[in-house]
Design a protein that fits this description.
Radius of gyration: 19 Å
CATH superfamily: P-loop containing nucleotide triphosphate hydrolases
Largest sheet: 6 strands, mixed
Structural class: alpha/beta
Distance between the termini: 27 Å
Number of domains: 1
CATH architecture: 3-Layer(aba) Sandwich
Helix content: 25-40%
CATH topology: Rossmann fold
Number of helices: 10
Shape: globular
Strand order of the largest sheet: 6-7-8-3-9-10
């Protein structure tokens, strides 16, 4: 099977402190592949390097060393704004706090219209495409298009972020803790939207979470991150039934109901 994304020996070191300089290794020599239509979960506690990894893949921060290869091309060679927009069309991020992703002074219709700057060409029926994308994620256009972000619930804002993906149809989505600020009753619906994107548009998903139980139910493969390193990786059943790393065993012990069927997905 072809590889969509290759992460090769990726390291990110931050230098902190004004007087006494200190190095913090956020990501330490990690490597993994993402295949087409794959649902891959990065699992680990806060500070394990998951979000830093996502930011590097999205070209929001530079690695100290290592490389990201997308469709056979090193993203380090992306230099022009046109190239960057094309990359962001294909590799799109959805973040933990959907409110922070919106301009608070722009209504939903304007926020979604800006997505079209990532698409080549100008002959789009933007209004129809936006309305259809909102319906795809379970929202009524007439109820949300004229509203500001603060007038929407967390679940509605996250659905609008996913509606961007229905417009762009990216090849890879990086979803960084997309459920952490959403109530439990809404989470299953959001997960189903990711599943539909994979099934309908063959989109791959890198799902970033601290919740091993959740990753177990939705993933094709799980990577366990701890203190910037990948300490274990494999299929969900293998990770849960035969954990090798001490940190993984601790995560498994913290999910006592793991083998019970989760009716939400």
């Amino acid at each position: 099977m072809n590889v969509l994304l290759e992460v090769k020996e990726l390291t990110k070191i931050y230098n902190v402190g004004l007087i006494r300089r200190k190095e913090i290794i956020a990501v330490k020599n990690i490597s993994f592949d993402v295949k087409p239509e794959m649902f891959l979960s990065l699992v680990g506690e806060s500070g394990s390097g998951k979000t830093t990894t996502a930011k590097i893949i999205l070209k929001l921060t530079k690695p100290t060393s290592g490389s990201i290869i997308f469709e056979g091309k090193n993203i380090e060679n992306i230099n022009t704004l046109k190239e960057l927009r094309q990359y962001w069309r294909n590799v799109h991020g959805i973040f933990q706090d959907p409110y922070a992703s919106f301009n608070p002074f722009h209504k939903v219709d304007r926020a979604l219209s800006q997505v079209f700057t990532l698409l080549e060409g100008s002959s789009f029926d933007k209004e129809s495409i936006i309305k259809e994308a909102l319906r795809e994620v379970g929202l009524r256009p007439e109820e949300v298009l004229d509203k500001y972000p603060h007038e929407l619930s967390g679940g509605q804002r996250q659905r609008i972020m996913i509606a961007r993906c229905y417009i762009l149809k990216p090849k890879l989505i990086l979803a960084d803790e997309p459920l952490s600020m959403i109530d439990a009753s809404t989470r299953a619906g959001i997960l189903k939207l990711f599943s539909r994107l994979r099934d309908e548009y063959k989109t791959s998903v890198i799902f970033i979470t601290h919740d091993l139980g959740l990753a177990y139910y939705v993933s094709d493969e799980i990577l366990i991150m701890y203190k910037g390193s990948i300490v274990e990786k494999g299929p969900p059943n293998e990770i849960i039934e035969k954990p090798q790393a001490q940190y993984t065993r601790r995560l498994v012990e913290d999910v006592p109901l793991l083998y019970k069927k989760w009716s939400g997905f």
